[in-house]
Every structure is written in structure tokens, then in C-alpha cells.
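W.,

You were right to be curious about this one. When I first looked at the sequence I had no strong expectations either way, so I just let the prediction run and decided to look at it fresh. Below is the sequence, 287 residues in total, followed by the output.
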Amino acid sequence: MHGVITEGEAFAKPAAGKRRWRWAATLLIVAAAMALVAATVTITPIQARDVIGDDERDVFVGSGSLILPDGMARPGRQSAADCPGCRWIATLMCDPVSPTACRGQARLCPNDHFWLKISLLQPGGSWQVLGSQCFSPGGPARRDDVENLIAEQMERAVPPLRPSHRPPAGILPHLPVIFDSGQPAGPMTWSWSILGLPVSVRARPAWAWQFDTLAPVSTTTQPGGPRVGDGVHHVYRHQGTRQVTVRSTWSATYTVGDLGPLTVSQPVNQIEQILLTVGEARAALSR
């Protein structure tokens, strides 16, 4: 019959419309998800090693004295080396990973190093640019760190303290006892690489002797030896057991290329004790 819509036809047409609407909604959801992913990738933070061209970034900031390498001007190195109240900034000038970012000497800086500009602020002054140079991943070397490592090396390098005395036995009152530290008179010198810097160290020893508990301390730059003329001897007045204490102190200076000499703030100390027995002097009868 014309103009009559059956029940099946009446439900078929709206179903097709719903399918088209659902397909369009799915496309919109997919497009929104792709846009969100793209936005997430775009805002990923840039790491310090990604800085190239003329961009600058402060990668090291600190205070205190610095030991700067030979490639920088000597007046600036001297100022930085003796400035405990200073503030400093190391700024990344270019990224060695990029073949076009670094120019001149900066192109010779290894990929795992930084080409840094060093700026120094002295107390009461203004910021001063000291120059730029290639630095290891640890950045500029603080003077305190350099001297702590020098002291550690010295503790392993100085000869041990081995005190002895003559006579080794049969010590009598009123006769001199000769002491020996068992160490050389010095000075001693070493050359080490400290935090990538060529460091030359010169150390001088001194000794402090205490010949009995509560006795006064005698200081000397002589190491002692087997003879009275070697400089360290003592006369005991009474018999008994004596505790002898000796302390050696190694004071050092160092240079880094043409910088210095600088004084190591903390000397290396060694201490040892020995016991000796002073016997009773007996008169000998003669005929």
C-alpha cells in the first residue's frame, strides 16, 4: 500500500543515524588524544647539555676561593685563589656536542667537559669576568677541596714516624739519652694530579718532643740521629720508667702551574710514644 510505513522500516532508519553519530564521536576522541600526546612531547624540559649557540646557563654556583687552570689569565687566577669571602658563577657558554655551537679553543673541549665562563664577586665589589676555559664534569675546583685532597695524598706519602733512643737499654741518670725520629730532615716534594690540575707540593717537617709525662715540650727542625750532635738528646735526673712522646708536623705549600706558592691550610700530623727505663746509677769502688 502506497504511503504506508511498516513497523520494520520505521525502526531501521533511526538505527543508521545512531551509527553515524557514534563513528563521528569516536573520531573526535582519537583526534583529541593525539593532540594531547603531541602537546606532552613538546613541553619536555631541555637538559643543561642541550644548551647551544649563544644561549648561556649558570651550571655551577658557589662561594670561597677557586683554583683555576693555567689557560686563564694569571691575575684572575690569583684573585680567585685567595678570596675566601668571594661568590662565583660558572656559566655554560656552548655545548661541545653540537658541531656548530663552540668556536675557537672551545671546540677542543671534550664532549664530557664544559666550556665555562667564570665570574667572581669580591666582598664589597662588583662582578668580574675572569675568562673562560674547558672544565671537567665536576666544574671549577674549590681551593678547600684541592687542599683536602693534597693532605690525604701527603698522609700516604710522608715516611712513618719511628722513634728510637740510644742507648737502647741500660740508661743511667745524669747521662745523655740520644733520640731519633726515624724520619728525614726534609723538605720532601711530590707532583700529583688533583681534580685534573697539575699540583706540585713541597713539605717541611718539624718535631715536638716530650721526654716524660707532664714535661715541657721541646720543638726542633732536626730529626735526631744516633749521635749527640744530631740535635735531640735529654738527660734524666732520676731513675724510673719514662713515657716519651714525639709529634711530627708536615707543613706544605703548593703550586698549580704558574700559580702560587699557596699554603695548605691543614698540616699533616703524626704522633708516636715509646717507654724507656732509667736505671739506678751505682758507684764503682776502685783500689
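Here's what jumped out at me. The mean pLDDT is 81. And, maybe more interesting for your project: The first strand starts at residue 57 and ends at 63.

Coffee later to discuss?

I.
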